[in-house]
What does this fold into?
Amino acid sequence: MSKPPLSRAGLGASTRLVHAGRDPFEQHGFVNTPIYRGSTVLYPNTDDFLHRRAKYTYGTQGTPTTNSLQTAWTELAGAAGTVLTPSGLAAVTIGLLACLKAGDHLLVVDSVYRPTRIFCDGVLKRFGVETTYYDPAVGAGIGDLMRPNTAAILTEAPGSQTFEMQDVPAIADAAHARGACVLMDNTWATPLFFPPHERGVDICIEAGTKYLSGGSDLLLGLTSANARWWPKLQATFSAFAMCAGPEDVFLGLRGLRTMALRLREHEKQALEMARWFQGRPEVAEVLHPALPDHPGHAIWQRDFSGSSGLFSIVLKPASQAAVAAMVDGLQLFGIGASWGGFESLVLPFDAATYRTATRYAPAGPSLRFHIGLEDLDDLKADLEDGFERLRATV
Ligand SMILES: Cc1ncc(COP(=O)(O)O)c(C=O)c1O
It folds into this structure.
């Protein structure tokens, strides 16, 4: 039983998300690729085994379930291939390990996701890779920071917690002129809002834990590469066998089908809340690149086609006790780190404590919000009560 394959030409992103990476007639007509669990793969004879002549060779190297998500993500990201890892951080580390060796120099944006920084300063340093952090506003000036041994540049836009934009195409041009690999953590925008490989990114990272899941119920990473870097990424992944679990991959596939819908809703909700925060007397600044007065807005408008549910605010000067009174009493915002799920979240942060290339000097305490799918009137009422507690506490 089969049908002719669907022609992909001219299909929109939402249509692709629905159809990519699945063939119901390979699954007895069932809509979804099921969960294949397995370590060993049997071969029909010794000759096929000795030459590993099979589509699937061993559990760590892929199953029809992982193949389904890899194929879909490769299509969505405009990549040559994708590997799936057990977390978003593992997707970052496998990407870096694919393009670096002892003696190399690595440039990393100062606003990078903090655990990535810890990996660079710890493991990479131990293996002989030197990391230099750079100002997110560097743009084409990145060329001045490159050394003869600069092998890779890791970008992330907008920056984790602080939301600075980066001129990724300009950085990619400068990097490619000297043969360096450009990596990007694209978790915030996803390929739906920023097509990474089209913009010059060689290796792209997505923490599927966030918007691919949408449910705060799994850990998953996706690392995609263009044709130049795919063989290295694939070989590195294969050597580490850092594979994602079958149930998590299945949940990732389930999330993929509705990701466009959810992301557009998170975008709408977050933008309304960001504008609402701008009108609050307790707020000094809203850090959201889709707002016209954000310093990175022009880059966002040029390179991105949407924004997601995560942004930060800077409060006017307030004591730690006042911020704690505000945040701890919120009923609808959980205090927690991983975002992208259906629920709203808040966390206090101070990027000044770990930055090394730039100074983070906000007017007051900083809070990061993820806006979920709740009714906005309820979220605003919860926050209004929070602001009252903030004002009442010294
Ligand atoms: C931008 C970014 N990249 C990567 C990660 C890592 O994802 P995971 O939690 O799946 O390791 C996170 C997690 O918060 C993140 O915010």
User: Anything to note?
Assistant: The chain has two domains: 13-255, 260-392.
